[in-house]
Design brief:
Length: 366
């Protein structure tokens, strides 16, 4: 330290002034461990040549503490802008980004609103998903019409692509007009040959959402939540899965929907399922309601996120979902480079060996 202070022009000038009894009285030259070192307010002045090494040494030695904790621990040292240097170093530590979970706002980048459907025709767009597993490896396929939120559920054994294709054909295609689009996640039950062959044979275009981004299929996720609530509310029917799912589907079809301002059944049949009272839908009003709901949901989610603008070429970390890692495993991987950006909040990452498309919900700046 003494050698580096004497070789640093700024420290050397201050030491010369002190030896002449001049300069800022906040600087002193007390002995420390038998060596006379330059101090500022009783803290050792660290010359520029040692600052990065000292910050890195403390960060490694203390097993990657947070920025404030490390700064407070290094309180015996000082240099201009020390707190900012420590904070910037910790922020850029890749090992910290891979290993640490943080509380508070940690989602970066505002999400664009989900685009409204480009068609107002009922049954053009259907969302599908699986919920489960239930006892004895049973799953439930949910199929939901986008305009009315009309729901069909069917129990199937396992989650193979063939079983899922058969369930969708029985529960939906055999009952309702052929959809133009089917929205689904990238699970093998939907991307498998059998399900894709069914869509191809019916001239239905599939619209897979980005991997591990369930919010993109939020219609199904909300229904799954309601189904699980019904299952928990009727524990006496836990051994009769098909019965309780029929009850759950009936409750959703007959219940008031806050966005639609009516139940799905009232919109589809023009009357209430219980009282048989006639219902006349204002489709122009409903279209505006759906659009306003999209904006409100988008604003609500963005209030929980940190404003950040990603750009092509940025280095980012990719979060690993909790269900895919053990408690001691890293929580993210990377850094990866953003190769392409899309208007819907998706990005294409260059992982070195391949390209990976994901949503900004799963990344954060490196």
């Amino acid at each position: 330290m003494k050698k580096h202070q004497l070789n640093d022009s700024t420290c050397k000038d201050i030491i010369s002034q002190l030896e002449r009894n001049e300069g800022d009285p906040e600087y002193t030259l007390p002995p420390a461990l038998g060596v006379v070192l330059l101090h500022y307010r009783k803290r050792v002045v660290v010359p520029e040549s040692l600052r990065n090494n000292l910050v890195e040494l403390y960060h490694e030695y203390l097993l990657h503490p947070g920025a404030e904790k490390q700064f407070r621990t290094m309180a015996t040292f000082w240099w201009p802008g020390m707190e900012g240097d420590v904070t910037n170093f910790v922020k850029k530590c890749v090992d910290c980004k891979k290993a640490k979970l943080h509380g508070g706002k940690q989602q970066y980048g505002h999400l664009p609103p989900t685009p409204a459907s480009n068609t107002d025709r009922p049954f053009d767009v259907v969302h599908v998903d699986l919920v489960g597993p239930f006892p004895q490896n049973y799953y439930c396929l949910t199929a939901i019409e986008q305009q009315f939120r009309w729901l069909e559920v069917i129990v199937q054994k396992g989650k193979g692509s063939a079983a899922t294709a058969l369930s969708f054909e029985r529960a939906w295609l055999c009952r309702y007009p052929r959809p133009k689009f089917v929205v689904h996640d990238q699970g093998p039950e939907f991307t498998g040959d059998e399900f894709q062959a069914l869509l191809l044979s019916m001239a239905i275009k599939d619209k897979p959402i980005t991997a591990k981004n369930p919010q993109a299929n939020a219609i199904c996720e909300r229904v799954h939540l309601e189904i699980m609530n019904v299952l928990r509310a009727r524990p006496d029917l836990n051994d009769q899965l098909e019965v309780v799912l029929d009850y759950a589907a009936y409750a959703i079809r007959a219940s008031y929907h806050t966005v639609l301002r009516a139940s799905p059944a009232q919109l589809l049949f023009g009357e209430d399922m219980i009282t048989r009272e006639l219902h006349f839908a204002n489709w122009s009003f409903l279209s505006k309601q759906r659009f306003m709901a999209i904006l409100q949901d988008n604003d609500r989610e963005n209030r929980k996120r940190i404003q950040h603008f990603y750009r092509v070429g940025d280095n980012v970390m990719l979060r690993i979902p909790a269900r895919e890692r053990k408690k001691t495993d890293p929580v993210s991987k990377g850094p990866f480079v953003i190769k392409t950006m899309y208007d819907n909040g998706n990005v294409l990452l260059d992982t070195g060996s391949t390209e990976y498309r994901t949503n900004i919900r799963r990344i954060f700046p490196c």
